[in-house]
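User: I'll paste a sequence; please echo it back and then give the predicted structure.

Assistant: Echoing your sequence first, then the prediction.
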Amino acid sequence: MKLTDLFLRNLQLDGSKKRYFDDAIPNFGVRVYKSGVSFIVLQGSTRKSTTIGKYPALSLKNARTKAIAILQPLAPKNATIEPLEALRAFLFHCSVKNKPRTVKDYTRLLKRFPDSWDKQTILTTLQAFRSTPGELSHLTTAFQVFLNWCVHNGYIEQNPIAGLRNQGKINKRDRVLSEKELKAIWNSLSEDRFSTIVKLLIITGQRKGELVHISISDNIATIPAEYTKNGLLHTFPVDMALPYLPAPTFNGWTKAKARLDESSGVTGWTLHDLRRTFASTHARLGTPIHVVEKMLNHISGTFSGVAGIYNRYSYLTEMTEALAVYENHLNSLIQTDTV
């Protein structure tokens, strides 16, 4: 169960010493006494119970913050830390911040992470799954997310497999533009309608046919359900894309695309490949799989079946954070003299 103030206020103070644990934070809960309700945490292999404060003198919100500080097995930043120790910290972090399905997926995938930060060891671990390309794709993404998190928390100086292209299975067409190709295309665009649409495809990763239906309010883009491929309302944050919205209508795709191929020197790609490139770049930058799917309005994968029906959380904060990282990367790429 997830503890709430309403639940705590209605507890019967019968001296039963019953314990109730919070689904949001492992090993955090309350114990009921005749004198009141106390927040507790369970620590160590013996699961020793420690009282951290009494309700309501200590609010539920502050109790959760205090519990995280006690329970989260993090070493000081810039400290030497072994992969398995970092992995335990990462999964604890996920258990607090992410949905149970996401935590389950990361736990399953990251149990294969080697007990070493060595680049070649990590690559060898991944290549062992070449015969199952779908699994290899998920593993590569999970490894990247974990390693980027370790960099952010100061446990390693750099991601040893940063920039590694996902070698796993990609549906049907697998064309992903390189950074060099993406830069060449961007720098060949002008101020016409076709160029505006291509820039929007690069920045947002949305489907070409849905761009014209985007409306904007407070930097949040909305595509009505009647215009999306899956029939679901789609909302996502925008920033770098704002100067190019609303998207223009356009005809003459074939000739305009041919001219762009000639001026950029990039051939053998389609406009829809920009959507795949958007997703692949996010994976390389460490954006969690479920956040990428939210930005793309996908209902397959982590949002299929029952999860897609009952999980109505918008992930707007997570999308905003991921988009900021992506747009900084894109701006840096465009402005760099060489790639």
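The longest strand covers residues 36-43. DSSP finds 13 helices and seven strands in the chain.
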